[in-house]
Amino acid sequence: MEELAEVPGLGGCLSALSEAELTQASALVKAGQADIFAAWPPAGQADEEKRAFFEQARTLDANYPGGLAQYISISNARKLLDAATKGENSLDGWSPSVPSTGVDLAVGSDACCLLERRGLEEVAACCFVIPAGGLGERLGFNGVKFALPAEVTSGWCVLEVYAAYIRAFEALSSSRAGPCRLPLVIMASADTAEGIRRLLAEKSYFGLSESQVTILLQEKVAALADSSARLAMETLYKIATKPHGHGDVHFLLHSSGLLERWLAEGRRWVYFFQDTNTLYLGTLLSTLGVSATQELEVNSVAMPRRAKEAVGAIAKLTHVDGRSIVVNVEARWRTTSWSLCSSPQGTMRATPMGQTASHPTRGTRTVSFSRCLSM
Questions:
Q1: What's the order of all strands across the beta sheet hosting 324-329?
Q2: Measured at the alpha carbon of residue 17, what is the angle toward residues 14 and 23, in degrees to the nearest 5?
Q3: Are 99 and 329 contacting, i.e. CB atoms less than 8 angstroms apart?
Q4: pLDDT of 241-274, one tens digit each?
Q5: How far apart (Å, rounded) are the C-alpha atoms in residues 42 and 34?
Q6: Which residues form a coiled coil (predicted)?
Q7: What is the rounded distance in angstroms from the CA atom of residue 319 to the CA atom of residue 96?
Q8: CA spacing 20 to 30 A to 27: which of 253, 273, 305, 360?
């Protein structure tokens, strides 16, 4: 650790640091974070605060795939910040088009009913996952979005409607193939975890068994101070943090061991949806039917969008080197030059798609998708 002795501020603290703390300090220095130690006093002063710093750094390191160094390295944050500073567009070289594959289902049609019956055969092998890390402030609601009233007739809240659907799927499956219990996973954040737990407890889990509901806590990630990817410091010994994205749900499902458990139980499908729209589950059975019939690994559900509507759209992107992908493109990345159809407005337009791979967009028109575990 001789190189650490030359780091301003840190060099005078080495004698008070454990082996694990020295290793962490070395990793941070190699990641270009030596400046955060510059004002540290020597060993014997503020030692407890320094230990708290390294404890927080350990938590942040464990909460990101590849660790804290990977998060701020050239392959992640620093590369993205550098590209943003230069005004680079991550979609340069990609040309958009309307996907040619997919299934356009009319509700109530013979084809839709047939696929729903096929989905009913699969629903016992399904798991339900909801990212719910945000509060309802944008919607003018001071609380977790699960507690929002779904409609005025019954007064049911959003989570109550979701639970009723899950209980109905269980009853349908049980009547055909014996007892069925469908797991529900909610990814909460520090902002929403307490409110969600309180809502579930007050309403007796809306008729679900407490054991079938799992709450995974989405941890925050380190905030960055500038385009050089320097860690932002809340205090001399505390790294500033910020919420991360919905993609954390996949990391948490894996790191929690739930995926392995579900596979061992014979589960085959995961249905991802968000916490602000009670229409999602109305398409579950037909979505499962399409997924099973076509043996899909990822299947998205989309809806028609109006031209120039500020929501994400599913598009096929083809690169100049021949690569192609069908993916959800967020509204902020679209430009008027992206003409995907003969619309007189000349903007992207998505139609209902079945065989597509995408990530959920935010807002009331969120794309939901089911995913096969047996990849």
A1: 94-97, 313-319, 324-329
A2: 90
A3: no
A4: 887 777 888 889 998 999 999 999 999 999 999 8
A5: 15
A6: none
A7: 9
A8: 253
